[in-house]
Structure formats: C-alpha cells, structure tokens
Amino acid sequence: MRIQLNPKLVVSIVYVTAMFMAAMDGTIVNVALPAISNEFQIPPTATSGINVGYLVSIAVFLPMAGWLGDRFGTKRIFLIALSLFTFASVLCGFADNLQTLNVFRVLQGAGGGLLTPVGMAMLFRIFSPEERLKVSRSLVFPIAIAPALGPIIGGVFVEQLSWRWVFYINLPLGIVALLFGFLFLIEHKEPEAGPIDLPGFLLSAPGFSMLMYALIQGSSQGWSSPVILGTGICGLIMVCILVLVELRVEKPMLDLRLLSDRLFRTMSIISLFAVAGLVGILFIFPLMYQNTINASALESGLIIFPEALGLMLASRLMPWSYKKLGGRQVISIGLLGTIVVFVLLSMVGPETNLWFLRSLFFNIGFFLGHAVVAVQFLTFNNITPASMGRATTLFNVQNRIASALGVVLLASLLGAFGTGTTGANGIEQPLLAAYQFTLLGSAAFLLVGLFFALGIRNADIAAVVPKQSPAQNSEMGAIVKVSE
C-alpha cells in the first residue's frame, strides 16, 4: 500500500515547521547569551559573535538559494538545508567553548540561508495566484508565533534546564519535518536553470557578508572603527558592482530585472520598510523595558507575546478585509494603524499599565498583520513559476538587509542621545527619553512604507482576487489517499 498526501498540504506542513524553527532561533538564542557568557567565563560583549557568525553566514548563502533549488531540485536542497540547520543546532548545544559554538552557528546559518527562499519557491509554485492569500495566512503562524515564543521558551530553558536547550529544541521538530518531507515532497527542477552565475557568487558572498558584518557590529564597535569602515566600504562597493554585473548576466543569481514589474517592485519596497520598522521596535522595546524598568527577559517576552495573537487574528480576517476594502486600502490602513500604535508605544514609562502595553502589542500584530499578509499575497502575483526561485531569493535578500538596517539605524539613533547612569552597578545606559524617541524611528520606517502603499495602482491589483470556492477551501485539509 502506498500513501499519497495532497502535495499542497505536504509543502505547507514542511515549510511551516521549518520556518517555525528558523524564526524562533532569531529570538530564543538572545535570551541565552548571558548564561553562555557565565559558563564560558567570557565578557558579555564576546558573545556577539554567536549571532554575527550566524547572520553573516545567512548573507553568504541566501543569494544562491534560488539557483541551487532550480538546478538541483527544490526538495533536495530544502531537505539538505533543513538537515544542516537541525544537526548544526545539536552541535551548538554540545559546544564546550566559544570558538566551536561560533563555528557551529556558521553552519546553522548556512542551512537557514537556504531554507526560506527555497521553501517559498515551493509554496508559490504549487499554489495559483488566486490561492496565495490562503497560503500567506498559513505563513503567518511561524512568522508570528515563533519569534514571540522565543524569549518565553528561552527564559524557561535557561532558568530551569540549561542554555543548551535553546538549540536542542530544534532536533525533534527538524526530524519530523525531514521525515515528512523525504517521504511526501515532490521534486521540482527548472530545465532552464543554467550554470552557476560565478561572477555573481564571487561578488555576493564577500560583498553581503562584509556589509552585514559592518551593519551588525557598527553600533557596538563604533562607525569610525577601521575594521567597520573597511568592511563596510568594501562590502558596499562589491554589492554595487554586483548590481551592474547581474543586470548584464543572462541567468543571474539575483535577477534584479524582476524589479521591472511594478507590482513586485512596489510590494518589495513596502515589505522592506515594514520589516525594518517591526524588527527595529522588537529590538528597542525589550532593551528599554529591561534597562529602564528592570524587568527580566521573560517578563518583556510576555509583554510582546500578544503581538503574535493579533497577527494570527489578522490572518483569519484578511479574506474578508481584502474583499471589502481592496489590497491598496488594506495595506495603507494597516500601516497607518501600526504607526499610531508605535507613537503610543513611544510614550510609555515605568507607570504604564501592563495590560495597556499588551493591548498595544496586540494591535501592532493586528494592523501590521493585515498589511504583511496582503503584501505577501500580492508580491509574487505576476511572477512566472520558472522565475519563482529567483524572485523569492531576491525578496528574502532585501528583507534580510531590511532587518539589519532596522536594528542598526535605531541603535545608532539611540546612541546619539548619550547615556545616563542607571542601576546599582553604574553601567552607562540610555535614558528613558532616548528610548522613547528612538521608538519613533520605527514609526518613520512605516511612514515611508505608507507613502509607497498610497501609490499602489488599482489597475495593478484589480484582477488579483482570492479564490474561495469550496473545492479549493478543502485543499488545505488533511486529504489522504490510500492506493494499492
């Protein structure tokens, strides 16, 4: 007997599980850094390499993900990436010194850099444009829940077990996804993939890695540091040359010509500023809440968690909202509502009611969730299946850069306001007013995104209508066929 599962269900389950692991890793590890510092007997600043190596590794491997999937098969590359991410996580848990932990984090980043674009390519190839709103709703789960759960689960592990469990948690999830994907995923290759874009790879790997390193470390090492200036300038020059080269290559690794499509270009720009704003506020607020109110990482995580609930509710309401208002209005109202909430969040202080804070984060998820799901739905509407791998790669590269820019620019803005002595240990920390003003920087990112959202042409999205027939609504259900 041979069990056949609906291919759309299989791709969705495998992708959501893998993305849950990768998204949670971004926040759960941060909670464990003080414990790692204590166990390895190193200064807290030395633990920055744990995240830097991971993020730089992602920057190196992310641009080639689309071509690898097209050339060697999306199933094969996705499962290789998932295996690498899972077992590198276990190796991180076994690490007995900082050096080996950094090496294993680089391996983990290599797997993480390939997972997202290859997985998105599988999803958007197998679902028609009319069905993608439903798919985007399912993507909200790992994007929303995992980062919010990270600080909470990480805090429990560090306090009750060991920091090593923030890595071990990926093993059971990874094994389940690997077995399910190995048994039921269908392979897909693009016959027109062509050979590797060697000039693009030789420019993108060092260019993006140096640029990301400079962006991540600039605020801590100082922007005038020779290392930061050198890596930043060299990385920027290589990326600029990469743009010129990729526009002339017949089969580029990063197909920048896809940006000639107005809808893809506009949605990508809106996504860039939305990601920068959200990542920025999720970076600044926990620092403010812990450093000025003396809350624990677990307490700040519990304050932020309602954002995930708001995002999930928004994903459920999106089909109704989209039909009633239209894509342009949903994105614009979502961004405007989030800007208002960001401004309110910049006014909070030690006396602010905790439930009011939680309600603000719930509304961030609700408003921004509408905008994010609508953008995700519309972005790839005009992209052909043959170009999907490169389109998802380009989209994820720019979002990864947006994440770094959100943190970097707000951290620099925070540092520009100077510090005040807080706490019994006399460590210099920014004053509450500096944090509050910096939170407005996140609103500024969204304001730019809103400007582009208001410029969306109704003619570009008039024909984009979610498919809602009963037959299609059942496609995401657990359809199992048993045949001889």
From TrEMBL:
TM segment ranges: 12-36, 48-68, 77-95, 107-127, 139-159, 165-186, 198-216, 228-247, 268-289, 301-318, 330-348, 360-380, 401-420, 432-454
Pfam families recorded: MFS_1
Keyword Nuclease found: no
Keywords: Cell membrane, Membrane, Transmembrane, Transmembrane helix, Transport
Entry membrane topology: Multi-pass membrane protein
A GO CC term assigned to this protein in UniProt: plasma membrane
GO molecular function, one term: transmembrane transporter activity
Compartment annotation: Cell membrane
Domain Major facilitator superfamily (MFS) profile, first and last residues per copy: 11-461
Primary residence: membrane
Family membership noted in the UniProt record: Belongs to the major facilitator superfamily. EmrB family.
Protein name, per record: Drug resistance transporter, EmrB/QacA subfamily
